[in-house]
Amino acid sequence: MTGGSSLTPEERRAELAEALAAVRARIAAACAAAGRDEGEITLIAVTKTFPASDVRLLAGLGLADVGENRDQEARPKAAECAGLPLTWHFVGRLQTNKARAVAGYADVVHSVDRPRLVTALSDAAVRAGRTLRCLVQVSLDDDPAEGRGGAAPGAVPEVAAAIAAAAGLELGGVMAVAPLGADPLPAFTRLAGVAEEMRRNHPGARIVSAGMSGDLEQAIACGATHLRVGTALLGGRRAIVR
Ligand SMILES: *Cc1c(COP(=O)(O)O)cnc(C)c1O
Fold it and tell me: Keywords on this record (predicted)?
């Protein structure tokens, strides 16, 4: 796929429908292999770098969950798509000074990894009169210098307790990105252990957000409930300048 910029809306719709069917087939096969019910899985389309028109097309195809990783891109896109029956997931690294903006449109924040961010999101959610479901992002990288955000597993209980106690926030569970270039299975197995431990103190925190285009099968095998899929649904992203 090309990203669709040269396609007519009808062609792009057909391309997305085909990709969605293929991803759903992968999910079905992985659930069958793991003895899990497909109904336990929420597919989030990560639409970063793709236009609001793609979000509309996906919504028309029955997709209910959308993910974005940068506030400056997500905010106008969510505004353009207001009125569609979508749950917005913020999955990227989040600076405290963006908490207020993100609390305006996000329903679920997957990348909560420090108490200061919990405080900022709580203040923002209360101010906006909204409830944000928050996941604790767990770092599965042993080398923090390689890290893509996330709390060390040992720091997860503290962040989880802060979310659970915060006004305007609801503790949803855990999220992780598998370390680059390594077998994702041990990482996702470790995440499952962190999730299980969290549920001992917070039984309602049942979300395990893991698995992307390249590793959704392994994530499903390890108990993921939410998959964050970009490339396999929307096509290759062009490099973006940060
Ligand atoms: C971009 C992104 C994804 C989707 O990755 P693909 O490999 O394109 O499926 C998932 N999670 C996060 C946090 C992302 O930033």
Answer: Pyridoxal phosphate
Task: State which ligand 1 atom lies nearest to the alpha carbon of 231.
Answer: 8
The answer to the question of residue 239 being in a domain is no
pLDDT in tens, 123-168: 999 999 999 999 999 999 876 655 678 999 999 999 999 999 999 9
Ligand 1 centroid–CA 82 distance in Å is 23
Q: What is the mean pLDDT of residues 77-81?
A: 97
Ligand 1, atom nearest to 212 Cα: 9
Q: What total number of domains does the chain contain?
A: 1
Domain span at residue 46 reads 9-234
DSSP label at residue 216: H
Residue 54 is part of a domain; what is its CATH number?
Answer: 3.20.20.10
Residues in contact with ligand 1 by the CB-under-6-Å rule are: 46, 48, 69, 91-92, 177, 212-214, 228-232
- The rounded distance, in Å, linking the Cα atoms of 57 and 80 is 13
The Å distance, Cα 217 to ligand 1 centre, comes to: 15
Chain centre to alpha carbon of residue 58: 16
Residue 17 is predicted with a pLDDT of 98
Q: Is residue 44 part of a domain?
A: yes
